[in-house]
Amino acid sequence: MSKRSPLAPARFPRLPEIDGVEIAAVAAGIKPGKQNDLFLAALSPGSAVAGLFTQSLTSSAAVEWSREVVEAGKTRAIIVNSGNANAFTGTAGVETVKGMAAVAARQVGCRSGEVLIASTGVIGEPLPLDQIFRAEEKLGDHLGSCSWKRAAEAISTTDTFPKGAFATCEIGGKRVRIAGIAKGSGMIAPDMATMLGFIFTDAQIPQQLLQLLLVRIAGRTFNSITVDGDTSTSDTLVLAATGRAGNTPPLSIKDSSLSPFVDALEQVARDLATQIVKDGEGATKFIMLEISGATSFQAARRVGLSIGNSPLVKTAIAGEDANWGRIVMAVGKAGERADRDQLEITIGGVAVVRAGERVIDYQEEPVAEHLKGQEIQIGVDLGVGRGSATVWTCDLTHGYISINADYRS
Amino acid sequence: MSKRSPLAPARFPRLPEIDGVEIAAVAAGIKPGKQNDLFLAALSPGSAVAGLFTQSLTSSAAVEWSREVVEAGKTRAIIVNSGNANAFTGTAGVETVKGMAAVAARQVGCRSGEVLIASTGVIGEPLPLDQIFRAEEKLGDHLGSCSWKRAAEAISTTDTFPKGAFATCEIGGKRVRIAGIAKGSGMIAPDMATMLGFIFTDAQIPQQLLQLLLVRIAGRTFNSITVDGDTSTSDTLVLAATGRAGNTPPLSIKDSSLSPFVDALEQVARDLATQIVKDGEGATKFIMLEISGATSFQAARRVGLSIGNSPLVKTAIAGEDANWGRIVMAVGKAGERADRDQLEITIGGVAVVRAGERVIDYQEEPVAEHLKGQEIQIGVDLGVGRGSATVWTCDLTHGYISINADYRS
Hints:
- Two copies of one chain form a homodimer.
- By secondary structure, chain A is of the alpha+beta class.
- Chain A folds into two domains: 21-278, L-amino peptidase D-ALA esterase/amidase (4-Layer Sandwich), CATH 3.60.70; 286-406, ArgJ beta chain, C-terminal domain (Ubiquitin-like (UB roll), Roll), CATH 3.10.20.
- Chain A is built from eleven helices and 15 strands.
- Chain A has helices at residues 61-72, 90-108, 129-142, 148-154, 207-220, 259-278, 297-308, 311-318, 324-333, 364-372, 398-406, and strands spanning 21-26, 38-43, 48-53, 77-84, 115-122, 163-171, 174-183, 196-201, 236-241, 286-294, 344-347, 350-354, 357-358, 375-381, 387-394.
- Chain A has a six-stranded mixed beta sheet. In chain A, strands 3-9-8-7-6 form a five-stranded mixed beta sheet, sandwiched between helices. Chain A has a four-stranded mixed beta sheet with strand order 1-2-4-5, with helices on both faces.
- In chain A, strand 11 (344-347) and strand 12 form a beta hairpin.
- In chain A, helix 2 (90-108) packs parallel to helix 3 (129-142).
- The first copy, chain A, is globular and about 70 Å long.
- Chains A and B meet through helix 8, helix 9, strand 13 and helix 11 of A and helix 8, helix 9, strand 13 and helix 11 of B.
């Protein structure tokens, strides 16, 4: 891993073990050196698994495979490699996917069709199956004795720190645990980017409800972050529930026993998603865009993403400049309803634009002070409705250019 | 003006005078120093004028005013200032627009409602009318004795070189001239960006037909360029036809006498539009994206813009890396139909991807050599239809970050 992002959390959190989940992470030689690059999770029989995949119309073979596995409704294993995305590798790529499924199936003791697969890394280069085969035994030996931190490292590529998060809550009086790992630092944009996320829980949740939950929570977390607006061919977010906590399964998303779990899950997902932003390539500032007064949540999120993807806004913040004109510009290009003459903008809580005009003599000093910090808050009220959303992004710096004009991903 | 772009043309072209057009450019003190920042064009009575404006939903007062003038169908003057966009300046901004119209009307001898207005520069700062008033007399004195180069300079902001283009052709045996000036270097994206363009001709074309022509040609030129995907609140493209050439007016866009004019106009518009890209902030390479095999022109253009707006593609080209994987990624996120397994990509004319896979042993040397040059050609065949489009963009470099993290626009 390269130099740790200045926005990285102090340390990897202490993720709990999840009953019914066994993990392994080994070095298969796909990434250079002896870095861990192959991850396997074995799920106990009867686990429910939900998945969300890239919206890219040129998605990878692994994504196509995994979509079908999730739809079939029975998943017993997840195998992930980093260092090579196995994308645009034609028929060889499809063979590699089959081979990876076979390896996982043998080690977990299930059918190939019960294995989810994700690959991330270089596009267009063949991923030699023999490397995976050679690592198979090590993978099996390792199963059940692996730390979450090591697992998070094994799924990482240009990440400068491993990403994990956890929460506990109760469902109908039963204690339930949630643990998740994620990776991603560039090519991050909504509807999944080069972003992998795997969240595990021992809660008992029926598969259909689990999928509904994942869609809802992803909209407010993983699909509300952006680093550079680019979308990868491999993005995958998986939520696996083993049911070992033994809670009474909730039957509907409206079931009141479910709400602490929804909150806890959203917290884990938000934590992972914002860690990805904090590892944004070249990022020196973490930006929280709070959009309100929109016609809907979707409209608010689109406006937030328009601001969060604007190179001019992101460079202004890198330059610690309260350039609200660029924020207004980005609101305008989002294509969502806004009232120019009702627009309100705050930076670090200080109103700089009110009723569509600069607040004469707004306090520049606290704003300047806020912009010197690492966590930047920008509020935008569109003045046309009650929809709101939060979008997270980072600044655009020389670091991004250096990483992406040199590193071949 | 700052350091000239390395992609700038050797010199400003020799634009012809256009019969029925008188221009002036003076220094009103809006830009620092004694830079020219106020431009006036007087059009002879009976001129037809077409206009296209920003799609931004937070457009400036000048844009709102000018839209109405074009719709009313009678334009006698165009007044433009640089250095201040007069955007988000509330009721004071509306007063400034009225004042500018009055100044132009007095000097040209027309009604205020016959004056088109454009402003470009800093957003959100008041544009003091008294500066415009003080410059009025100078403006009148200067009318008719101004060079196109000086006019192009007067409408510029962060541009590093003035932009002009011309062409001549015949309509039904009559010689016709076209001359245009433009400005723009950052915040350039389709559907107009901080982009101003003014094209003048002595051809006689009915207003409705002129508007139709402008829309068609803008789609293939000004709306097919991108620097950073950002869209300004002030973009304006105007086409004025004085009719002084005395040609028989064509009645329909299908009139065969019109086709040389359409070609010449497209040439001028493309020349101006690509000059804007060549002045892209921090640009060191000019990139031509030729998309074919799409379901339509619109689909091809959208794919081209998706590639042309991708920070990952643009940084790869800055790094002279034949990273076709990022091109494939950008095709995938465009949301247009493409066949992953039919995709073909060429760089500098050399096939690097065929049938969705890397061409094994493609000639890397000529590709590497091509990427070292200043003009980069990338061809993408989507393999699903017959639609094609060309999109122009530039690379994303440290220069862009330096300009936009420091300059307050």
